[in-house]
Amino acid sequence: MHRIPMKHRLARLAAGFALVALFSVASALPALARTFTIALIPGLTTDAFYITMHRGAEAAAKALGVHLMFQGAPEFNPTLQVPVLDAVIARHPDAILIAPTDTTQLIEPLKKAVAAGIPVITVDTYIGNGHYQTGFGNADFPLSYIASDNVLGGEIAARALAQAMGGKGKVYVSNVKPGISTTDQREQGFKLEMKLHYPHITVLSTQFNNDDANTAASQLQAVLARNPDLGGVFGANLFSALGAANGVKAAGKLGKIKVVAFDAPTAIVGDLKSGLVTIAIAQHPAEIGWFGVAAAYAHLTGQSIPVRIGTGFTVITAKNVDDPAVKKFIYHN
Ligand code: T6T
Description:
- By secondary structure, this protein is α/β, with parallel strands linked by helices.
- Helix content is 46%, strand content 17%.
- The protein contains eleven helices and 13 strands.
C-alpha cells in the first residue's frame, strides 16, 4: 500500500483544518450580521391586551433573531406616551411599532422618528384617519397599520346586545375617551348597526371613563338612576367592560342589564359563566404583535409590506369559553 509520508499527512491535515475553519467562518457570517432592534410601544404597559401583544411580538422576534425593546407608559395617555416615544427615538432602534394613544396628538412626535430615519408601523390604534402611504394628509407616513377591524367589532357588539334584549330597550356605550381610533370606531360601528337594524333600541349618551374600571362602574349606577329601565351596556374596551359589569353586579341587576364586553381578560371568564356578561369579543393581540415584528423585519430586509394587516376576533360566550380553541384567545398577564 502506498504510504503518505508523515510530513504530507500533516500538511493535508492542516489544509483540511483551514478549509473547515473557512466554512465555519462562512456559516457564521449571517450570525455576525447586525441584529435588528425593534421597539414596541404599547398604549400602556399594565393592560393584559398589550401584555399579550408583547408575548406575540417576542415569539416573532425570537424566530427572526431580532432584539425586541418594550417600553411604555403606565396609563393610556398621550402626555405620558410622548416622553416614552422620545426616549425610544433617542436610543435609535431600527423600527418602531407603536399603539398611538391619540389620533392627532401622536402625529408630530412620530414625525421625529421618521426624521431620525426610523420607520414607523402602528399596531392596534392609528394616527390621522388610519389610511397610510396615500401621498396626502399629514399622517400617512407610517408604513403599515396592524389591528382588528374595530368598526366591525362594534357592529358585532350591537347585534349581540340587541338580540340579548329581544330587540328593544335602552342601552349606552361605556367608552374610554374621544380621540382613540379603536374605541371611537367601536362606538361608531355599534351606533350605526343599532340605527340601521334595531329601531326599537334607544342608544343613550356615551359615558367616558378615562380607561378606569371604577369610574365605569359608578357611571353604570348613575345612568341606571336616571334610566331605571336600562336594558344593556356595551363596554368598548377591557376596563370599560369590566367596570360596567361590576356596576351591574353592584346594582343587583345581574341578567337584567345585559353586558357585551369588548376584550377578553381572564376575569371575563367568570363573568360569562355567571351570566353577568353575554358575550366577550376577544381581539387577537398576540397576532398583532407577531405580525408587527414580522412586518418590520420584512421592511428592514428589503421586502415590501402590506399597508394594512387585519387581525380577527373570537366571540366568546358561556357556551364556548371552555373550548381550548376559544380559550386560547383569553388575554394573560
Ligand atoms: O381594547 C384594547 C385596545 O384595542 C384599545 O386600543 C385600548 O384598550 C385596550 O387596550 C383594552 O384595555
